From TrEMBL:
Highest classification ranks of the organism: Bacteria, Pseudomonadati, Planctomycetota, Planctomycetia, Pirellulales
Gene name linked to the record: fcl
Gene Ontology MF: a single term: NADP+ binding
Matches recorded under InterPro entries: Epimerase_deHydtase, GDP_fucose/colitose_synth, NAD(P)-bd_dom_sf
Native source organism of the sequence: Rhodopirellula baltica (strain DSM 10527 / NCIMB 13988 / SH1)
UniProt protein name: GDP-L-fucose synthase
Active site: Y135
Length: 314
């Protein structure tokens, strides 16, 4: 009997990368549900799904996600939806005997002023970044629930906290997206229109670390093979750059040759965010996709999706 894996959130950027990664694994039976088929915020529906489907393993890549602007504007939605989805799925998985649960969060769970590079132990040591506090609290709850179920019941429930992700199938909404897809769209439009300048939000000084989503999918597969995985582990590159430097790289990747203007009226968010990846490295995983290559590939994927009418913009 193949192992039955439920990938929650398979239509998102992360879930679809995991499905691509598992496409060649004929020892796995991957189970998915769209949001219309299964509302993860609905406890009764989630219980019913787990009771009838009985997966062996769950990869929890479902989340309400967005960039700095939507996170800061709709904190109630980000906190409520993400808390409910995590709590419903973790509890139902435990009750129906799921043998392994891998919960995916984000490095925004760490304090705003965490010492850099951020180690896993920085969790809950000082206040969170305000612009995404609701989302971060929900993800902390998911991580802690996995840790508590493992501690109290011996269930093999654990978590991975990826840094800022990018790659094929991202959300390219002009206001709601994260910085890489937001800038790819803006620079690409400007290059096509021969515009003189492109505006980048904030001061350009914040530093961020970016991981290609295919590297995360490889890390997920790796973590699922560990007999005694850490309760939670950072997944990143350990390398960061300023938003201004990132903008220059995206200008090059899209062929934009005009001026880059910073809009200081937009928020910067956390000043620096770079993870310490020694814990996952010590288990035998490391990233393989360089940012320059990943950006070139992502821009090509964006162009391909424009042509086929498949650009996600929500
Ligand atoms: P964060 O890591 O949670 O802050 O996620 P984001 O990807 O939304 O933003 C990262 C940084 O990029 C922040 O400092 C933003 O101000 C900056 N930034 C610059 N231009 C943009 C843009 O067009 N969209 C977004 N989302 N962020 C931008």
């Amino acid at each position: 009997m193949p192992q039955k894996i439920f990938v929650a959130g398979h239509r998102g950027m992360v879930g679809s990368a995991i499905l691509r990664r598992f496409a060649h694994r004929d020892d796995l039976q991957v189970v998915t549900r769209t949001r219309t088929e299964l509302d993860l915020c609905n406890q009764a529906a989630v219980n019913k799904f787990f009771e009838s489907e009985r997966p062996d393993t769950v990869i929890f890549a479902a989340a309400k996600v967005g960039g700095i602007h939507v996170n800061a504007t709709y904190p109630a939605d980000f906190a409520y939806d993400n808390t409910m989805m995590a709590a419903n799925a973790i509890h139902a998985a435990f009750q129906t005997g799921v043998s392994r649960f891998l919960f995916l969060g984000s490095t925004c769970i760490y304090p705003r002023m965490a010492p850099q590079p951020i180690q896993e132990d920085a969790l809950l040591t000082s206040p969170l970044e305000e612009t995404n506090e609701g989302y971060a609290l929900a993800k902390i709850m998911g991580l802690k629930l996995c840790q508590y179920y493992r501690q109290q019941h011996g269930a093999l429930f654990h978590s991975a906290m990826p840094t800022n992700l990018y790659g094929p199938g991202d959300n390219y909404h002009p206001d709601n997206s994260h910085v890489i897809p937001g800038l790819i769209r803006r620079f690409d439009d400007a290059a096509k229109e021969n515009a003189n300048s492109v505006t980048v939000w904030g001061s350009g000084k914040p530093r961020r670390e970016f991981l290609h989503v295919d590297d995360l999918a490889a890390a997920v597969e790796h973590l699922l093979q560990l007999e005694n995985p850490p309760d939670w582990v950072n997944v990143g590159t350990g390398v960061d750059l300023t938003i201004a430097d990132l903008a220059r790289k995206i200008a090059d990747a899209t062929g934009f040759e005009g001026q880059i203007v910073q809009d200081a009226s937009k928020p910067d968010g956390t000043p620096v965010k770079c993870t310490d990846i020694s814990r996952i490295r010590s288990t035998g995983w490391q990233p393989t996709i360089r940012l320059d290559d990943g950006l070139t590939q992502t821009v090509a994927d964006y162009h391909h999706r424009i042509q086929s009418g498949e650009v996600r913009s929500v």
